[in-house]
Structures are given as C-alpha cells and as structure tokens.
Design brief:
The protein is an all-alpha fold. The chain is 73% helix and 0% strand. Helix 2 runs antiparallel to helix 5, helix 3 packs antiparallel against helix 4 and helix 4 crosses helix 6.
Length: 153
C-alpha cells in the first residue's frame, strides 16, 4: 500500500497535464471558436448587404466562378471584384472588415509570451475584393487554391 501512493501521485502529476494537452489539441482541431464563426458570418451578411443589387450579383458571379473552378487566380478574381465596386461600396465593406477584425481580436486569448502584432500596429494589405472572396468562397476551395499556389512550378 505504501508503494502505491507514490506511484499514484506520479500518475496523477503526469496524467493531468497530458489530459489538459489533449483537451487543448482537441479544441484546436475543432476549428475557430463560435464567436469567430459568428463574427465572420455577420461580416459576410453585412458586407454583401452594403453592395447594390447589381454589383452584389456581379460579385457573386465571380465567387461562383472561383467556387466552380473556372477561375483559379485569386488575385485576378479580387481585381475583378475591386473593379465592380463603387468607392462608397468599397468603404462600407472595409468598415465591415474592420468590425469583424475587432471582434475576432477581442475574442482571441492572450498569448502567454505577449508577442504578436497589436491592433494598433497591424496594417492589412487586403483589398476589398480579396476580403469578399474570403467571405464568399468555400473554405475547402480556399485551401485548395492556396495549396496549388504553394506548389513549385
């Protein structure tokens, strides 16, 4: 019985951190948090509502071409969308992007080392067209296109 207590203590000491690690990796594999998913969905709805009916249809046609595989150059697709939008539509969509990013940052856990870009110093080079593509193109298709772009030619 006396030998069982130290063994039990060792098992408890090593077992609990392993269980915590397993839980953290399960959380990471589960995908983005519900708050981030909700922020993205809200931004998508608001951004597309900021577009005029005709422009919304044109943007959706470009997104459909990307999702369908007819258009595989994301940069060209983003440029097409940028050319469709009016300046006021672009400004409104960028405002939705800013709101989404603020919500995501507010729901991100703090990094233990304190490293990483702050909201004040981080600047995005993302175009309005690229943002709308990221919202409208399926995640699977985005992964596929990114993977294809990374392959050496």
């Amino acid at each position: 019985m006396m030998k069982a207590l130290p063994v039990l203590a060792i098992l408890m000491a090593t077992g609990l951190p392993l269980a915590a690690c397993a839980q953290q990796s399960a959380d990471a594999a589960a995908g983005p948090s519900p708050a981030i998913v909700q922020a993205r969905a809200a931004a998508k709805t608001a951004a597309f509502n900021d577009l005029g009916e005709t422009d919304r249809a044109k943007v959706q046609a470009v997104i459909d071409q990307v999702n369908g595989g007819q258009l595989t150059d994301m940069r060209a697709a983003a440029q097409q969308i940028d050319a469709i939008l009016t300046p006021s539509e672009s400004t409104a969509v960028l405002a939705e992007r800013t709101k989404m990013m603020q919500t995501i940052r507010a729901n991100m856990p703090a990094r233990p080392d304190g490293a990483g870009p702050s909201a004040a110093t981080h600047k995005s080079t993302s175009s309005v067209g690229r943002f709308l593509l990221q919202l409208g193109v399926s995640p699977e298709k985005l992964r596929e296109l990114r993977h294809a772009q990374q392959k050496p030619q």
